[in-house]
Amino acid sequence: MQLRQNAGARPQITFTSDFHELVQGDLVPGPCVLRYDPLRLVTLGDAATENHHIRAHVRFHPVGVEWHCLLELPAGLPLADLADVTGQGFMLTTTFDIPAGCDALEVWFSCTHDDGQTHWDSDHGKNHWLRFGLADIAIKTAKVKPAVKKSAPQDALEFEFSTRPAVDSVNVRWCLANAPKAPRVVTSLVCAAATPAGKTWTAPEGGIPVPKGAVVSFDVVYNVEGRAYTDDNQGRWYIAD
Fold it and tell me: Domains along the chain?
């Protein structure tokens, strides 16, 4: 399995104009870069004529403290020429400090327009909740184990993850990297052990049947307090072979 991306790197969160929220780096106390595409709250027509005051709000869990910042978007900025849904175009950028003991970030944004109306980017009032997969999950095993009998028609896909105690469930979304037309499959892992220090999750007994010689790409969706979080190796997926 390839190395996990950005392990040990400083944290960064990015909000793109196509309403994706990207988490990069490790959850470590100290500076975290926030990148925000103003087109989430501002239309291209408005950007040419109005001044916009976008405010970023972050609440740190479970410590409970908050951080707020004003992000100024100058009037007349040619956003139509600078727009990029991947987050590589014009972005409002700032930095805040993650406090010690933080496990999750609750983030939302507001924008006051010239007519006095305030618009919100808050996931329909629920706010955006972000966690760092590098802090929540350690991937111990991800491999395709050959069948004991060479005549057996299938091999077995095996996983072993360790997670923080707060993780309630773990699903692996996988497909055959060497068979592009094969459908994507979601498999729930089994909690094999739980202690105050964390949990161990494995594939169902006997592993997940896959074709002989399979190469599997996968990402992970895990739940904490009813919210789903994705660890996709920061956009690159993982490989088990």
Answer: 12-130 (2.60.40), 136-240 (2.60.40.2440)
